[in-house]
Amino acid sequence: MLLCVLISIFVYDLPLRGSPLLLALVSALFLFCALGLGLMISTITKNQVLAYQITLISAFLPAYILSGFLFEIHSMPLWIQTVTWFIPAKYFVQSLQSLFLVGNVWRLILFDMIPIIGIGAIFFLITASKTVKRLD
Known about the structure:
By secondary structure, the protein is mostly helical. It has one domain. 72% of the residues lie in helices and 0% in strands. The chain has six helices and no strands. The chain has helices at 2-10, 20-44, 48-65, 78-83, 88-102, 106-130. Helix 2 (20-44) packs antiparallel against helix 3, helix 2 (20-44) packs antiparallel against helix 5 (88-102) and helix 5 runs antiparallel to helix 6. It is globular, with a radius of gyration of 17 Å. The N and C termini lie far apart (39 Å).
């Protein structure tokens, strides 16, 4: 993350108007959510190939296409806009846009951090409920 931030500031001349500590916090929360999804998928699936395929379909492609990184969410059909509410990367991209272009607007950042925490917590709760405890 640090390398990407440094490249965006010094190579692309993008201003970082927000706090680097808040940027690190938002990034850590997104990684918490991504870790929860990865643990949930690896707990549910039986082999590595299936886990890879499910991760590609459920995490990478939606995060790349439906996060607002490539395509503006407001220009998508309404039903796809509704689907983006469940994509944690959407809230991460919105937080990055706020931190880089606007600054520390806590109201915007908090409204983006709460869904990331909630979705991550759901992933960890599903993982905890599906984990089989054995004494082998």
